[in-house]
Each structure stands twice: as C-alpha cells, then as structure tokens.
Write a structure and sequence with these properties.
By secondary structure, the chain is an alpha/beta fold. It is 36% helix and 21% strand. It has two domains: 280 residues, Aldehyde Dehydrogenase, Chain A, domain 1; 195 residues, Aldehyde Dehydrogenase, Chain A, domain 2, CATH 3.40.309.10. The chain has 14 helices and 23 strands. It binds nicotinamide-adenine-dinucleotide.
Length: 510
C-alpha cells in the first residue's frame, strides 16, 4: 500500500484542493480514505473550506482566459500528453482504484484504460469541433454556426468510477477550451488526487496556467452545495444517484445554468427462447457480478421467457457458485467487497423487503465473515425470483442483486423492461433478427443504450454514454457529446451591400 502511495506522490495527509501542480493549505476537516478491502485507513485528506473553494474558482476563471486562447488542436496535444502520462502509471493507478473502492485489479486497470482511451478520442476531437453552414434565404449572405468554449465547469463524480467518469468530462471539456473544477466522491478521494497530480505535472511541463484542471474535496455544505449553486460555473456535470441528480438539477435550473446528469440505472436484459443461453449466462454473470454489482450499468433485471427460466437460473447458479470472492488485488478473485458496511446493510434490507413483497432468493445474498471478510464488506452475489412491479424492483439497490422476472410474450417482456423509472442501459439476447429489431425500434427499449447479445455494462468510449427518464438524459464521452461543453453561436454575414430583412419584411427607407 505504501509503495502505491509513494509511486503516485501521495502522503499520509494530502491537501484536498489545488490544481494538481500546486495545492492549497485547506482549512476544512480531515477525511480518512478507508479501504473496503480490510477497513484500514489508506491515507487522509485535509478537506477544503468554503474560502478554499472560492480560491479554486478564481484560479479556474483566470486560467480560462488563457486556455481558451490556445488553439483547439494545441489543447488536444496537451491531452495527448496527459494520456501518455497516464499510460505509464496504469498499474499503480489501477492498484489504487482497487485499494480505495474494492474493484478487482483487472477491472480497475480497465478503468484506467478508459481514461487513456478518452484522451486519445479527445485528441482527434480537438480537430473536429465542427459547426454546420446553411444557405441563407437572403442573397449574398452567409450563415453558419460555431462552437465556443463555455467557461469553467463543475464536475461531480460518483465513487464507483473514480477516474473514468471525470476523464470523460474533463478531457473532452479541455479540448473544448473549458477549465474544470472536479468534486470527486468523498469515498474515492486519493485516486482523484493521484490523477490530478499526474495531469498537473503535464500542465506545468508545458508552462500552461495553473487552474486549467482543479480539484476540490470538501463536505456537502462547504463545497458540494456551493459548487452546484455557483453562477460562475455555466455547466455542472453530475454523476451519481437519482436523488442527488434531482436535487442538483433543480438547483442548477433555478439559476438557469446547464446540467448534464448521469444518474442511476435499473438495467434489464431480455432473454428470449431464441437466445444462446450459454452466451447469455456468461454476459449476465459479468454484468451482474462485475464490480460487485456497483456499476450504473449493472444488470439488475433478467426478463426471461417462462420456458427457459429454469435452465437459465440453473446456468447462473452454476456460474455464481464459482465466483471467488476476496481481496480484489489477488489473482483469481472475481468479486471484491462492497464500498462500505452501509452498502452491505442496504443490501440486507433490500433482501428482507423482497421477501415481504413476495419474491424469493434463489442463490446467495449472505454477508461473509471470518478472516478478511470480517471487514464486514463482503457478500455473496444474489439471484432472486421477482415480479417487475415490486416496489423494490423499481429501485436501484447498489449491490449484486439480480432479479429474474418471467414473461410470456415479447410485448410483455418489453413492457416489463420499460416499466421502471430509470432508463440507462438495456439488452436483448436472441438470435432472431425480428426480435432484436423490435427491441431496437422505438417500440422497444426506452434506454439510452440498447444492445443485442451483449450485456448492459462495459460501454466503449466511442459512443455517447447516458440514459433517459430518471437517469437524467445527459450524454458524455464519445459521439457528439462534446457539444455539451461548448456554447453554440449562429452567425450571419451580409456581404451584399444591401439591407434585406428576413421573411421578406419591408421596414421603411432611411
Ligand atoms: P451519490 O449520489 O451518493 O454521490 C455522487 C456524487 O454526488 C458524490 O460526489 C457526492 O458527494 C455528490 N453529491 C451528493 N449530494 C450532493 C449535493 N447536494 N451537492 C453536490 N454534490 C453532491 O452516488 P454514489 O453512491 O457515489 O454512486 C452511486 C450512484 O451513482 C448509483 O446510483 C449509480 O447508478 C450512479 N452512477 C451513474 C453513472 C452514470 O453514468 N449514469 C455512473 C456511475 C454511477
């Protein structure tokens, strides 16, 4: 653990606000970063006070004036260097993600790879901040639209993707010409500080202004609420629970700011009689048990045809019983701990309500004890039989609980699938072309992501990521998600020498 911290320039006590190159003294309370692996304190963070927060915003505003004047492809060159700087630290960063949030090392390194991938993507994007041109109805006029940088933006991230979500926002925002203020989850502070140190080093080597990237770790009143309500930040991108997003969305809307919301999911997979069951079972195993069921895209509901309910349940039980649960840094372990004891408690409460609502546990759901398990954060992943209309099934419980829901017709399956408040990711398993086309049509899945014969988790950065309904409607990462980080301007140039009005209006002669 000490080696990982040292290699990433972290100390026993770390300032919680700064630019990655320089740090503030910070006047807030001390915050421990506790590893869910064994309950030990990894290191501490001195949190920012309200006045530290203000200093961070000032820095980000000052830096914006200079950064916005760097041509976009040159901003892309800086992001390219950032991607390379992360490439050479992939192993240590992965280890810290595992230590701090309990992901198995392979998944943790996969998360670092996502940072590298989005850097590569953003480099290309820096030469493709395209606007359209259109034909004017007036002779000898030129009309076009262009995109300008937006300003310093706020990025709030959840604990379960402590690097990737920030990078999807920050790297694209950087090429767009914005500066970024990051408020990471209080459960994943060290990972955030480590990557900020790496990126801050790149900015310093290039003699760029401090404050292009910023981090501020602090409690909700001193920092969180202030950031959301701050009219100096034209965009707040917030990733987390639906409850958090509802609040953030309201506060930002009340000051007529923009919000980009990436909230909870309740992802369903439809398995039809035409599916390759073995393929489906493998995908469901990873989708439901990966990251210990703590991904926004985790498979939570399997909507399975009545005829194959039994065989699929058997295949899943066989697969689940082979999952090795333990220290996520050890080889062969497939599932680490939940983030903390409260998450374990919430899972137990959920399973109790499931029984009261008429469901039954088919496999797992126990809290483990003895040795490392005494940390109180380890559980066995759980498979349940349930109905879609149970209040519990309508919610996202952020734990490895999988609800199997039987259906009879595809129409009914889609109705169940869409019959939840959230709309993030979805999939159908079928080898029948017509069934998959129905699922992908406007009569099918109502989610932001819809897949055929692959699970709901593990999105690639090239596509825009996000969901509908209570998931918040935001899109991040690839495709044209960059537009959220820029302001659009429609321009008309009159080169006719005449003053012709639109819509043929005549308005006197001067
Ligand atoms: P959370 O809602 O508890 O916290 C998320 C972030 O919001 C944290 O940084 C937290 O400090 C901050 N926050 C909470 N209240 C705030 C306030 N009033 N003002 C400012 N900031 C505030 O979520 P979590 O437990 O960290 O993460 C799990 C949740 O995140 C799940 O619901 C999961 O589905 C969701 N998530 C969504 C996506 C996505 O892209 N859609 C990605 C990852 C996680």
């Amino acid at each position: 653990m000490q080696d990982v911290l040292k290699n990433l320039d972290l100390s026993e006590v770390n300032p919680g606000a700064g630019t990655g190159a320089t740090w503030l003294e910070c006047g807030g309370d001390m915050l421990e970063s506790v590893s869910p692996i064994d309950g030990r304190v990894i290191a501490n963070v001195r949190q920012a006070s309200a006045s530290d927060y203000d200093q961070v915003v000032l820095k980000a505003r000052e830096a914006f004036r200079e950064w916005t004047m760097v041509p976009a492809p040159k901003r892309g060159e800086i992001v390219r260097q950032m991607g390379n700087a992360v490439r050479v630290r992939k192993r240590e960063l992965g280890a810290l993600v595992s230590l701090e949030v309990g992901k198995i090392w392979a998944e943790a390194e996969g998360e670092v790879q996502e940072v590298i991938d989005i850097c590569d993507f953003a480099v290309g994007q820096s030469r493709m901040l395209y606007g359209l041109s259109m034909h004017s109805e007036r002779a000898k006029h030129r009309m076009f639209e262009q995109y300008h940088p937006l300003g310093p933006i706020g990025v709030i991230t959840a604990f379960n993707f402590p690097l990737a979500v920030w990078s999807w926002n920050a790297m694209v925002a950087l090429v767009a010409g914005d500066t970024v203020i990051w408020k990471p989850s209080s459960k994943a502070t060290l990972t955030a500080l480590a990557i900020m140190r790496i990126m801050g080093g790149v900015l310093r080597e290039n003699k760029l202004p401090e404050g292009v990237l910023n981090i501020v770790i602090g409690n909700r009143n001193e920092v969180g609420e202030r950031l959301v309500a701050d009219p100096r930040l034209p965009l707040i991108s917030a990733t987390g629970s639906v409850a958090m997003g509802r609040h953030v969305g309201e506060v930002v809307a009340s000051r007529l700011g923009r919000s980009l919301l990436e909230l909870g999911g309740n992802n369903g997979v439809v398995v039809t009689t035409k599916a390759d069951l073995e393929l489906a079972a493998r995908a469901i195993l990873f989708g439901a048990v990966g990251t210990a069921g703590q991904r926004c895209t985790t498979i939570r509901r399997v909507i399975v045809h009545k005829e194959i309910f039994g065989p699929l349940a058997d295949a899943l039980i066989r697969a689940y019983s082979q999952v090795v649960i333990g220290n996520p840094l050890e080889d062969g372990v497939l599932m680490g701990p939940l983030i903390d004891r409260q998450a374990v408690e919430r899972m137990q409460v959920a399973l109790e309500s499931l029984k009261k609502q008429g469901g039954r546990i088919i496999y797992g759901g126990e809290v483990l004890s003895g040795g490392l398990y005494d940390a109180g954060t380890y559980v066995t992943p759980c498979i349940c039989e349930a109905r879609n209309n149970y209040p519990l099934v309508q919610e996202e419980t952020f734990a490895p609980i999988l609800y199997m829901i039987p259906y009879q017709t595809l129409e009914e399956a889609i109705q169940y699938h869409n019959g939840v408040p959230q709309g993030l990711s979805s999939a159908i398993f079928t080898n029948d072309l017509l069934e998959s086309e129905v699922f992908l049509s406007h009569m099918g899945s109502d989610c932001g992501i819809a897949n055929v014969n692959i699970g709901t988790s593990g999105a690639e950065i090239g596509g825009a990521f996000g969901g509908e309904k209570d998931t918040g409607g935001g899109r991040e990462s690839g495709s044209d998600a960059w537009k959220a980080y820029m302001r659009r301007q429609t321009c008309t140039v009159n080169w006719s020498g005449e003053m012709e009005l639109a819509q043929g209006i005549e308005f006197g002669k001067v």
